[in-house]
Amino acid sequence: MSSSSLSPAGRMSGSDGDSAADTHRREKRRLSNRESARRSRLRKQQHLDELVQEVARLQAENARVAARAADIGSQYARVEQENTVLRARAAELGDRLRSVNEVLRVVEEFSGVAMDIQEEMPADDPLLRPWQLPYPAAAMPIGGAHMLQY
């Protein structure tokens, strides 16, 4: 029952009762507000704890991704170095093939024996096109998912 619902005469006659009731209501509201503020602080603290855990999880994940990227980068550098060596080796072998072919031509010319001299490696040699599979992809054996890991 609020003080506004009482008649003016009723307020005058029970002013001590109203004052005690008002004080009780104010105290009750103050306690309710304190409890509400305490619950709000607890919720905020829980949210902050969750955010701190999320930050730690994301930092750990970021470190794992960075380590994986560094690993892939070093693997790429190693493969690139191997490719450079293989290209140099292919050029060297091409030069040797040309030299051997020249020797064979000289031998053929002076001996009169016909020789099968291959001027260059055949264009359909799959070793010259490492980016293409030498057989259809449909014929490739399919392994488990564990085979896809590095």
Write structural notes for this entry.
With 150 residues, this protein is mainly α. The chain is 69% helix and 0% strand. It has two helices and no strands. The chain has helices at residues 8-13, 15-111.
Distance between termini? 76 Å
Tally of contiguous helical segments: 2
Helix content: 55-70%
* Rounded radius of gyration (Å): 44 Å
Strand content: under 5%
> What's the number of extended β-strand segments?
0
Order of helices and strands: HH
Poorly predicted regions = 1-13
Shape: rod-shaped
Keywords, separated by commas or semicolons:
disordered N terminus, 150 residues
Write a brief structural summary.
The protein has 150 residues and is mainly α. It has helices spanning 8-13, 15-111.
Please describe the topology of this protein.
Elements (H helix, E strand, L loop, with lengths): L7 H6 L1 H97 L39
